[in-house]
Structure formats: C-alpha cells, structure tokens
UniProtKB/TrEMBL annotation:
Protein name (Swiss-Prot/TrEMBL): Intracellular sulfur oxidation protein, DsrE/DsrF family
The organism's taxonomic lineage, starting at the top: Bacteria, Pseudomonadati, Pseudomonadota, Alphaproteobacteria, Hyphomicrobiales
Stored InterPro entries: DsrEFH-like
Record region (Disordered): 1-29
Gene3D superfamilies membership: DsrEFH-like (3.40.1260.10)
Amino acid sequence: MNTQPATERAPEAQKFRKSRAAAETSRRSAFARMHNPVAPKKEHHLVLQVNTNDPAAMNLTLNNAANVTEYYRGIGEKVKIEVITFGPGLHMLRDDTSPVKARIEEMALSSPEVSFKACANTQERMQKAENKSIPIIKGADVVKSGVVRVMELQEKGWAYVKP
C-alpha cells in the first residue's frame, strides 16, 4: 500500500498518462505511414540560361532539359524547367532564326514540364537594330527581363544551370 498522500502521487500519475498518450500517438502515426505508402512527392525546379547565339549551346540546353525531365519521370518525381533566353541567346526562340526550332516544338508537345521564356528587353533592342518585328516561336512566353526572371526564380530556390 502506498503511504504517500494522493496529492503527492498526482504529478507521477499525470506524467505516466502523458507518456502513455505520446507513445500511443507515435504508434498510430507509424501505423498510418506504413499503410499509406503515397508520400507527397517533391517537386524539383531548374532554370536553364541561354545567352549566346551558339547552336551547340542551345542543343546542350535542350539535352539537359530532356535528361532532367526523363530522370525525374523515371523516379516518379515532378520537375519544372524554365529555359530563359536573353541577349544573343534570344535567337534560340526567334521564329525566323532559331537553329533548334524543330526540337523546341517537339519538346513543347512531349514535355509539358519544360517552358521557354524570351527576354522582351532583348527583343525590343533587336527590333530597333534590325528595323523589323522579331517573331518568337509559338509556345514560348515573353518576359520583361530575362535576367530578372532568372533572379526571381533563384530567389525562390530554383536550381540554376548555364550549359
């Protein structure tokens, strides 16, 4: 028989009840994880920068985008990729001068994870220099500043690669 007054035993009993409740919560949580194999999938983000009018660099960028997309599809994870062009790299997305236009059009259909952005500042400078409208490939979006777009995405945690 316990000779301690009930008021002195109360804190011990309360500790025991809390400990038992915590153990039960932990057990239920582990059981739920075991029987719910669908965990939220991580979404990856990649910025690919093109700022040179070099077909080899443009093709390398498209190869990188395709390889990254294929990798994450293969392991069942999501990925978003933005190819951002500015300066001489805008030729990649120019409808009239792109050496990789066919690949971009094909990728736009087969890889919705990949998007293409053209710098409006560069487009405007090229229009003035060439005294004509500079058409952008169908499916590419125009952003005010390619450099600012890269910065904004990096500030949000996107990985950055310049092939």
